[in-house]
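call fold target=dITP/XTP pyrophosphatase
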Amino acid sequence: MATVVVATGNLGKLAELKDYLQLLDWDLALKPQEIEVDETGETFIENARLKASEVAIATKSWAIADDSGLSVFALNGAPGVLSARYGDRDTDRIERVLRELGDESDRRAEFVCAIALSRPDGTIALETEGRCPGAILMAGQGAGGFGYDPIFFVTAQGKTFAEMSNAEKERYSHRGIAFEQLMPKLKQLKLTD
Ligand code: IMP
């Protein structure tokens, strides 16, 4: 069976990605640490393609990558593709979003997750984008998850990502939605192509 390299260095995302990918009976490998890809794309999907292709070429394997982040409407989509670089630590990034949003009454936001799967030659075999709408709270709530989870309130579920169980987050999150869209196609794919 062909190996698929999971092209992420983020441990929180890795844990979630592995949960989805385990359903596929693929032989998964982690991205070697020395392979660093500059996220120079202006959109989530551009960055997901870039990461999947570069890691595939470097490892001569299939590679799957996601690029995700938070877009806040009243901040013109920020932090967007800069979500991981909006501060040094999760707490700094959360603080910055809350500070920039201040007491703005329009708290609408969405999490976006783009996923791309690259063949060993760097060409993209499949891609998709999942979106989860929500709102930014005035302060964090809940202790689970990672990143911006405590301040992202999913109105449909009545709780933040940080208050959801792993199973709930996997089902309702942007990553969950992206995988739900992609899974039927992934199941049909012949990795030896
Ligand atoms: P990247 O996809 O590695 O460029 O980074 C995405 C960044 O967006 C992460 O470092 C988090 O700050 C944020 N992010 C992405 N998905 C989630 C999530 O499910 N919960 C909280 N923060 C997230």
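return ok
The longest strand covers residues 124-136. The domain at 2-188 is CATH 3.90.950.10 (Maf protein).
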